[in-house]
């Protein structure tokens, strides 16, 4: 199949998954053009300076995917298929029905370029030439040790995200912030742990609690383990005690459950959430860089309000690979430079021809 044909089939399948956002044929071809220089450069030689070049996918590509964020797994597979590579997908032991459904919507020529397994075959490690690994820092480190020399290795380990509200006197960003926190129960790398607010951060936190309850009614949190429940309970107890003795701390929480928690803390130091819809709200300090210093190497995305170029510039050098409007954090475009790098160009090799 030519690139155009693959793009048409992939766009049609992607339309069945709202979590992928709007992905059309034009979007897919534009991604190829932006990263590789020409939308047909995977199909044959194109002019390149004083000679001609073509891109050849590095394959097979091994995808080690996580069950926390199915959209990341789908995007990874979609990119591999867009390149025309063969794809070996190691699913989590609990499965990932979204991947199976996506494959069922593809035409046979594309479907045959994908193999899926719940247990990782040793043969896949031997024959794959590129590895894309999603998971914890420990998972990434494990596979990095296994990777032989010459393997193209793309790691997507644990990452942290946050929101920054630069100016919102009418609290218009609140429902969008609650949605960003709640989707995927904060288990994605683009899920915000903290919200920094210029102005009345305590009032923002109080109103955010109302919005969190509303999201819970529309999109109930997924079931969680006993260990996760205990983590939330411990953190709640800690901050409830602090709130009783420190006016700089206040907590709001769902009644009779651990469904959501909002903690206001008048301390700019970044606080990592235990996830499952527990979020911190903090006053925006003059020096956000200092507050984020301990986690600079783990930052992924920032949702900002209002999403102006001027506001984006203020935090562009803090380590984020994506800055977007609050409310769109969980909908990264296909062209996002994940981990700050291109996502297609990494998986091709170039062949030059001098006619």
CATH homologous superfamily heading of the largest domain: Aldehyde Dehydrogenase, Chain A, domain 1
Q: Could you list the spans in which at least 5 consecutive residues all have pLDDT below 50?
A: none
Q: Give the integer mean of the pLDDT values.
A: 96
Q: What's the arrangement of strands in the largest beta sheet?
A: 10-11-12-9-8-13-14
Over the alpha carbons, how many angstroms does the gyration radius reach?
Answer: 22 Å
Q: Please trace the helix and strand order, writing H or E for each element.
A: HHEEEHEHHEHEHEEHEHHEEEHEHEE
**Largest β sheet strand count, sense and barrel closure:** 7 strands, mixed
Shape descriptor reads globular
| Count of helix runs | 12
Number of strands: 15
CATH topology of the largest domain: Aldehyde Dehydrogenase, Chain A, domain 1
Name the CATH architecture of the largest domain: 3-Layer(aba) Sandwich
Helical proportion? 25-40%
How big a fraction of the residues is strand?
A: 15-25%
SS content category: alpha/beta
Q: Identify the quaternary structure here.
A: single chain
CATH class of the largest domain: Alpha Beta
Number of domains: 2
Distance between the termini: 26 Å
């Amino acid at each position: 199949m030519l690139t155009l044909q693959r793009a048409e089939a992939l766009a049609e399948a992607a339309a069945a998954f709202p979590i992928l956002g709007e992905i059309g044929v034009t979007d897919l071809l534009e991604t190829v053009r932006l990263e590789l220089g020409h939308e047909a450069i995977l199909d044959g030689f194109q002019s390149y300076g004083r000679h001609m070049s073509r891109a050849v996918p590095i394959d097979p590509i091994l995808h080690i995917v996580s069950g926390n964020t199915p959209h990341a797994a789908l995007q990874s597979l979609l990119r591999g298929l867009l390149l025309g590579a063969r794809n070996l997908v190691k699913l989590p032991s609990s499965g990932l029905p979204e991947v199976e459904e996506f494959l069922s919507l593809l035409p046979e020529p594309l479907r045959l370029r994908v193999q899926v397994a719940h247990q990782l075959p040793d043969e896949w490690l031997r024959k794959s030439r590129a590895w894309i690994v999603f998971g914890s820092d420990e998972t990434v480190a494990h596979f990095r040790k296994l990777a032989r020399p010459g393997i193209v290795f793309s790691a997507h380990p644990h990452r942290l995200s946050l929101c920054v509200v630069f100016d919102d006197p009418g609290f218009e960003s609140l429902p969008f912030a609650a949605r960003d926190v709640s989707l995927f129960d904060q288990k994605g790398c683009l899920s915000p742990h903290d919200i920094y607010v210029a102005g009345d951060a305590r009032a923002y936190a109080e109103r955010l609690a109302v919005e969190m309850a509303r999201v819970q009614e529309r999109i109930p949190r997924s079931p969680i383990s006993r260990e996760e429940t205990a983590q939330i309970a411990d953190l709640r107890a800690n901050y409830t005690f602090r709130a009783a003795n420190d006016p700089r701390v206040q907590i709001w929480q769902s009644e009779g459950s651990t469904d959501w928690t909002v903690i206001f803390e008048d301390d700019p130091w970044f606080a990592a959430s235990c996830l499952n819809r527990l979020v911190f709200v903090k006053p925006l300090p003059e020096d956000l860089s200092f507050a984020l210093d301990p986690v600079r190497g783990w930052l992924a995305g920032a949702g900002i309000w209002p999403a102006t170029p001027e506001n984006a510039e203020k935090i562009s050098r803090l380590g984020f690979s994506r800055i977007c409007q609050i409310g769109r954090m969980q909908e990264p475009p296909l062209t996002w430079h994940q981990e700050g790098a291109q996502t297609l160009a990494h998986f091709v090799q170039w062949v030059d021809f001098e006619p």
